[in-house]
Amino acid sequence: MAPVNAHPLRRTLPRGLLGFGPKPGWKSAGVLAMLCSGVAWASLPRLVPAPMDQQRQWQALGVAPLTGGGVTGMPMAPTDAVEAVDFVPKRAAPVEAPPAGPRRVAAAAGPLRIRGRVGDGLYWSLRAAGASPQVAAQYLAALATEIDVGAVGPQDGFDMVLGANRELLYAGLDRVADNDLQLVKWTAGGRSAWIDAANAARPAPVADGMAWPVAGHITSYFGYRYHPILHFSRFHAGVDFGASWGSPIVAAADGQVAAAGWAGGYGRQVRIWHGGGLTTTYSHMSEIAAAPGSFVRRGQLIGYVGSSGLSTGPHLHYEVLKDGTPVNPLAVRFASAPVVDTHLADAVKARLKALLSVGVKG
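Now predict its structure.
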């Protein structure tokens, strides 16, 4: 009789597979788990990289510093609020700086014109049309000199022209419910301002009183006085302001420079005609900063304090004349007729025509 442990089935199968004996089937269970996990992993979806154009668009929309991979100034994908134009020069992609050595600056491109509809928000419509955050801010600041930016309607159209260095030169707004704006950036006397081309010929508002021509105290008043050089009593036709050498002198009111040069005992002098028979003079300058025939605004720089001509020291001799007769400058309330700068209006219109030709095929 054969022993029990010599059963044929027990001799042909691995030990523990059928549950007989002290060792369970852990190796078989591990193999089965690995097979199941492999099937599950193979069933997961594979990540497909997005096209390079889409990656750059998402990167441009992300908020990140330039050092962290942020992108600014690149062409953006248009939205439904953007109005197509006939021709826009293609802007080159930004040039990345080399990893080491001096940083290279990309060459400036030509002028660029951007147009579109305001839609749900003016700022974001500007950005969607391709304007950088800096240019969009400049455009809003330009409009704010004439209108309330919050009153711009969704159907209004924006129009801008950028220079070679991407500085805003023209800010236009086609308004449905109000007059259009055509703002031209105008630089004169070292200062820049936005001028509406449609109203460039309008006279400036008349100031209520004249501006103080220099920052200084009065050392001699209008009327008869003992002259410190001639040593006899003489009529003093103006007011003297004591100020340090080189102090800036500004126009007391809007007007046209009638003369600018040497005027005998008055030294270097600027004479401004304000209309209505009123004239102001500024004498003993060290340097003149206004050209004859040019138009100046109230508070605009016209020269610097000096001691040229018949003078004992640096000061400004300031006169006001009514129909050629000196009057007390401290008693004058400026109420003359405004001076219209027709030359400025013609120059602004010519500049506007040149700016609006950008982006138009010949």
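Confidence is low (pLDDT under 50) at residues 16-21, 98-108, 203-207.
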